[in-house]
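User: Please predict structures.

Assistant: First:
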Amino acid sequence: MEAVVTQATPIPPAQAELEEPSARLRAVIGRLSRRLRPTVAGSQLTPSQTSVLFSIVRFGPIHLSELARIEGINPTMLSRIAAILADAGLISRSADPADRRSAFVQSTAAGRRMRERIQRERALALGAHIGELDEREQRALWDALPVLEALAERIPGPTP
């Protein structure tokens, strides 16, 4: 039996020039996100629980099925996470009056406060590190913000 050898399709030069910086940008965004994730306020929550809580605060009240689609997790796992968040008093769950088999979730005041504390801690941590940059580096970062914000708007994301 002969091994099948396939040849990689050559990447056009213009595309290759974009891939290197694009890969670097994606990697640095991921590193920043992971390093800013841990907080004192959210220390009792897993990253998945924090993500679900943030989505519920942002989009709620929302059907669990829609939330599972937005979060990209299976309904069984989401149901477990929702139960943990409900037991912690961060969300409330209610049956859909039109379909008693379906449920809505929404954040409680405690859930909204938790999200605010986590976001505030992350912003303060990022601000402290930015404060350690020299003036030229800070200016370069601030100058890039409008472009990064526009790029974020162009990339499709989950919506209810």
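Second:
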Amino acid sequence: MLVPSKIDDTPVVRRPRVSDGLGTVWGMNCTVGSQCVEPADLDSGLGLCTTHLIAAYDWVARDVGVTDLLPFPCAACGSRLGVRYPSGWLCAICEWRVGQLPDAQPTVVRRQALRVDVVYYLRFHDRIKIGTSGNPRSRLPQLRFEELLAFERGDRRTEQKRHAQFADHRFEGSEWFRSHQALDAHIRSLAEGVEDPWDSYARWVSERLALFT
């Protein structure tokens, strides 16, 4: 049964509280104030109606943001994941503010920020090349290969370590190696859980960018 009442000359309808005997109260009104006559969303456990739950969510989102897809890829790292604030978007990966030009940074600083040394593993027929670069997007197009198998974070020292590790299967005087069980297992461990090696590289670049922004 609905119970009518009046507050400030405004007709208000109150829903009586009815217990189901198990401790649950059904039919309670929103607890924000006497003017709200909407039923509370009992699933939320907050005693608020849907309208006030949304208002509370928007209030909190002003500070913590809402994770969502960016309107377009981040200009700094290429990620599509962003955090939306009332003041604008931030990239969720590198925290670049959408709309800013990456080149607004001094050129030297940006060049340092973008450099991520990697060891790359390339396949050509039954051979595997182990090399290194601080700018693989520029370096790899210069090479002849059929498939990029994996990236490993590391510089020349890591590359030399891998060359020594798999030296028994190396083609003399080159960075090419015969495919074999130990090398294949190492590459599989690097590629595990990674759909595209370039995704790993983009993440490493964005993490480094975050240190400079």
